[in-house]
Design goal:
This protein is mainly alpha-helical. The protein has helices at 5-14, 19-35, 41-51, 59-69. The protein is globular and about 30 Å long. The protein starts with a helix and ends with a helix.
Length: 71
């Protein structure tokens, strides 16, 4: 199953140069997984791990932040 649009939108925000945007995106991503979208956990983890090697300026920080919060 594909990820919801809410989750997909957060991946772009995790790469933002603005720290508060990255933090908020991580929060929304984690809350989405905890509330109703646990079935997408595997997809999210794979995508976050892949994002750790991104060349985008702040992607590594944002993806690492979110990855450390996934439980």
């Amino acid at each position: 199953p594909g990820a919801s649009q809410v989750i997909l939108d957060q991946f772009w925000k995790l790469a933002s140069l603005d720290q508060s945007t990255r933090v908020q995106a991580a929060r929304v991503l984690i809350e989405s997984l905890q509330k109703k979208e646990e079935d997408q956990l595997e997809y999210v983890i794979k995508r976050l791990v892949k994002g750790l090697s991104s060349n985008r300026d702040a992607a590594r920080q944002g993806y690492a932040l979110a990855l450390t919060e996934v439980q």
